[in-house]
Amino acid sequence: MPIKNDKNKEIIPTKGLWAGDPEAPVSLVLYGDYESVECGKVHRVINKLLESHGDKIRFNYRHFPLTQIHQHAHKAAEAAVAAAQEGKFWEMHNLLFAHPHRLGSISLREYAREVGVISKNFLPDLVESKYGWTVRTDLLEGLDKGVRNVPTLFINDREYHGRLSQPELSKAIDEECHGAKRKRA
């Protein structure tokens, strides 16, 4: 369900933003934080999996900023949501993970320009926390699912407890695909 802002315009939430094949039998949902080194590593693994498992997986990223240890994580997540309003979520998402140590407001504005965000209100919206509730919604939904730390990955709505490496995740995806085929047979 879209969230409405103070001007009654719907805000596009991250829960509806998927990369990969929309008809894929395997859904990956990662709860993460743009300042987390471990999330950055998993981000690179997921990108490789999207390339290698194209039609088998679809991917959704949900915000779970650990604000007690990462002071810029929440604003970075808001910046990604702001970019999503102009169809630039994935571009911004990738850029944020490319620069986890440069997530201050000025850097976020530079990244927005770089990915093609044209809104003149980008920085004022960040300052006013226009997208803060959207990020908080991801966080609360994660808490309801038992997420307590990042990165936390769900494969087809089940929390994955294995190693977040390309070989291990490839194996888990293949097992899910075989399981889906058996259910259809």
Automatic annotation (TrEMBL):
Pfam entry (one): Thioredoxin_4
Gene3D superfamilies, per the entry: Glutaredoxin (3.40.30.10)
Residue intervals of the Thioredoxin-like fold domain: 15-175
Family: Belongs to the thioredoxin family. DsbA subfamily.
PANTHER family: GLUTATHIONE S-TRANSFERASE KAPPA, SLR0313 PROTEIN
Protein's UniProt name: Thioredoxin domain-containing protein
